[in-house]
Structures are given as C-alpha cells and as structure tokens.
C-alpha cells in the first residue's frame, strides 16, 4: 500500500510508539490520521502534530478501546469525516506484573480484547465490498515468544495478539474482505511505558544475554512501515530485536530473517 493520501486510525497514539507510528504515516504524506487514546491532553498532542504536518488532517478521538461501542465511535467519526479508512494500527497497550491482579487483567483487556475489537472493526469498516480494503497492524511484542518470570498476563496478551492476527490475516480472509492484518513484535523500546511502570527499568537491567538492550524507535518504525506497505505480507508477525535483527514469522515458523 502506498501511504500517501491514505486515511489512518491509530490507537495509543497519545504516547510512545503509537505517536511515532502516527508521525511516520504523516511523514509519508497520509491525508489524515486520527489519534485514539484515553490521554487527557490528546487535543494538544493532535494540534502539535497538525502544526508539524500542515498538509494533512490530524484529529484526536478520546476513547477507552476496551469499550466496544466507544471504540466503534472512533471508526464512525473517521468514516463520517473522510468517507473511508485505509489503515488501522492497534498500539494502545499497558504493562503489568503478576503481583498486580487488577493491572494484569487490565493488560489482557487492553492488549488482547481491545485488539480483537480493533481488528474486527477494521475488517468491517475497510471491507472491500463496502469500502476499499486496507491494512491493520497490531502491536504485539517479542514477549509473545520469550517467557519472563513475572509477566504472565502481559506475555499471554501479546501471544494472543499474534495468534489473533494470524487468523484474521489468513489468505481466505484477505481474499474475502481485502484487508491485510499483520502483527509487529518489537523487543524492549525506551518509551513512557518503561518509565511509568515502577521497577521495570531495574528488572530490564538484570536481564541476561543482552536482552536488556533497547531497540531503536527508528528500527520499530521501519518495521511498521514495511508491514503497512508490502502487499506480500499478510497474517505475519514481524519480530525485531537488537540481538537477532528482523524476522517474519508465518504459521509459527520463521520464513525470512534479515540483519538490522
Ligand atoms: N515499550 C516497549 O518496550 C514495548 C515493546 C514491545 C511492544 N510494546 C507495545 O507497544 C505498544 C505501545 O507501547 P508504548 O511503549 O508506546 O507505551 P506507552 O505507554 O508510551 O503508550 C501506550 C498508549 O496507550 C494508551 N492506552 C492505554 N490503555 C488504553 C485504553 N484502554 N484505551 C485507549 N488508549 C489506551 C495510553 O494512554 C498510551 O498513550 C503497546 O501495545 C506495548 O505493549 C512496547
């Protein structure tokens, strides 16, 4: 897909990677990007991006993506304003340790349940029978593949996100509705999620075998753009780490690996 002149909806775009993905789409001259988030200063975030990219339309839609009908409201808002949607990125996410019962269940809801809503809504609103087809990128994590001692729900939510993406992104579904669905699985990236989770930085510092190394935002954004643009990529998970570069995983097997 050529991003120029396309219409995008990005969840979690009030901060961190979601905001980087929104900027990257605007740099590629997307016609419009709607930032969907629960942050309170979303209008300011959107107006700052609008100043940076005056040729595009940047909007903010405040909603909790774990609420299906509120989330659907974001899709309706974009459809009403521009007529259609081309790109959906589900980046909203939260971290959690096993000791925190409520936060762990919340991680399952935001990182998996809401990604299901965003994927299903994306497939409905971009269905080629009613619209123009499109692409959905779900932000998972290498936590889907590497177990850690204290992140059962976070890791399960990300494994679920990969599995959900593989099913939604099947060849049959692509042929039926014209929507490619892919997952991006970065290893650790130094974003506000890391700083705002107490004890996480210390836990990361103690990880063995170079696993504490942060991935550059540039590498994550490059992977994201590749998943959006490359029409050959559907139903895949792209894993990116500083220690083994980038791999495309299809049907739970590596089928392309390239160095960073
Ligand atoms: N930072 C990392 O090391 C890392 C690594 C791999 C994957 N990821 C994933 O990347 C995605 C982005 O994470 P980040 O590091 O940029 O974190 P972040 O905390 O900077 O951004 C997450 C955003 O999601 C929003 N959000 C949370 N719950 C929401 C809800 N219910 N409804 C709407 N918005 C909500 C937050 O307000 C925030 O703006 C997440 O899915 C995360 O799991 C992060």
From TrEMBL:
It catalyses: resolvin D2 + NAD(+) = 7-oxoresolvin D2 + NADH + H(+); resolvin D1 + NAD(+) = 17-oxoresolvin D1 + NADH + H(+); resolvin D2 + NAD(+) = 16-oxoresolvin D2 + NADH + H(+); prostaglandin E1 + NAD(+) = 15-oxoprostaglandin E1 + NADH + H(+). Belongs to the short-chain dehydrogenases/reductases (SDR) family. The keyword Oxidoreductase applies. It comes from the Eukaryota. The keyword Thylakoid does not apply. Its EC number is 1.1.1.141, 1.1.1.232. Catalyzes the NAD-dependent dehydrogenation (oxidation) of a broad array of hydroxylated polyunsaturated fatty acids (mainly eicosanoids and docosanoids, including prostaglandins, lipoxins and resolvins), yielding their corresponding keto (oxo) metabolites. Decreases the levels of the pro-proliferative prostaglandins such as prostaglandin E2 (whose activity is increased in cancer because of an increase in the expression of cyclooxygenase 2) and generates oxo-fatty acid products that can profoundly influence cell function by abrogating pro-inflammatory cytokine expression. InterPro entries: NAD(P)-bd_dom_sf (IPR036291), SDR_fam (IPR002347). It comes from Bugula neritina (Brown bryozoan). Signal peptide: none annotated. One of its GO terms (cellular component) is cytoplasm. This is 15-hydroxyprostaglandin dehydrogenase [NAD(+)]. GO terms for molecular function: 15-hydroxyicosatetraenoate dehydrogenase activity; 15-hydroxyprostaglandin dehydrogenase (NAD+) activity. Keywords: Oxidoreductase.
């Amino acid at each position: 897909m050529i991003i120029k002149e396309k219409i995008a909806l990005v969840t979690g775009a009030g901060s961190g990677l979601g905001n980087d993905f929104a900027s990257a789409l605007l740099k590629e001259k997307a016609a419009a990007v709607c930032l969907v988030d629960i942050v309170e200063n979303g209008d300011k975030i959107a107006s700052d991006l609008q100043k940076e990219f005056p040729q595009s339309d940047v909007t903010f839609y405040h909603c909790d993506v774990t609420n299906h009908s509120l989330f659907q409201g974001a899709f309706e808002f974009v459809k009403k304003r521009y007529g259609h949607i081309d790109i959906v990125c589900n980046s909203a996410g939260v971290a959690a340790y096993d000791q925190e019962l409520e936060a762990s269940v919340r991680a399952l809801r935001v990182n998996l349940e809401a990604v299901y809503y965003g994927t299903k809504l994306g497939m409905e609103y971009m269905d080629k029978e009613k619209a123009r087809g499109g692409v959905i990128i779900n932000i998972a994590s290498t936590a889907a593949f590497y177990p850690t001692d204290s992140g059962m729900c976070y890791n399960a939510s990300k494994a679920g996100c990969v599995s959900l993406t593989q099913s939604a992104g099947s060849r049959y579904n692509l042929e039926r509705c014209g929507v490619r669905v892919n997952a991006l699985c970065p290893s650790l990236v130094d974003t506000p999620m890391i700083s705002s989770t107490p004890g996480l930085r210390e836990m990361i510092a103690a990880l063995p075998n170079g696993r504490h190394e942060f991935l550059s935002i540039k590498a994550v954004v490059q992977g994201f753009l590749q998943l959006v643009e490359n029409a050959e990529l559907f139903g895949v998970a792209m894993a990116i780490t500083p220690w083994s570069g980038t791999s495309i995983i299809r049907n739970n097997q590596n089928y392309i690996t390239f160095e960073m």
